[in-house]
Write a structure and sequence with these properties.
This protein is mainly β. The chain has a single domain, classed as Thiol Ester Dehydrase, Chain A, CATH 3.10.129. It has one helix and six strands; from the N terminus they run E-E-H-E-E-E-E. The protein starts with 23 loop residues before the first strand and ends in a 5-residue tail after the last strand.
């Protein structure tokens, strides 16, 4: 049985437990807005770090896969948590290309609080996958 991207945990519209992130291209960045429900909290009122990392990964990989049409997988992901991220407040999740070398793309991402403060930063190395065969 083959499932489509509609069941992607981060962006799939059909996944009943997914984040349903809805990205669009804005000024060269892949951007989504999301207020996380309490089901995604770590400790009282604060978003779980794994969920935040998932959102950054989607901003980076999704940009290549969906916006640029390049099949890519995350080879490395580094995350820096700068501020606690509150539940139920609108966040801005962004991803963008930093550089390319061969079949690898260096990406950056951020999650910004409603006041514009960067709460989470990420950098990743993504591998473009050749679908031969």
């Amino acid at each position: 049985m083959s499932l489509s991207d509609d069941y992607c945990f981060a962006c799939g519209k059909e996944n009943p437990i997914g984040l349903k992130l809805d990205f669009s291209l804005q000024d060269g960045k892949y951007v989504a807005r999301k207020a996380l429900a309490k089901e995604y909290q770590g400790y009282d009122g604060i978003a779980h770090g794994g969920i935040l990392t998932t959102m950054l990964d989607e901003a980076m990989a999704g940009y290549l896969n969906k916006e640029l049409g390049e099949k890519a997988v995350t080879a490395r992901l580094d995350v820096r948590y700068r501020k606690p991220v509150p539940i139920e407040e609108e966040l801005v999740i962004s991803g963008w290309v930093e550089s390319r070398k061969g079949s690898f793309v260096s990406m950056k991402g951020s999650i910004t609080l409603p006041d514009g403060t960067i709460a989470v930063e990420g950098s990743g190395k993504l591998a473009i996958v050749n679908e031969a065969g």
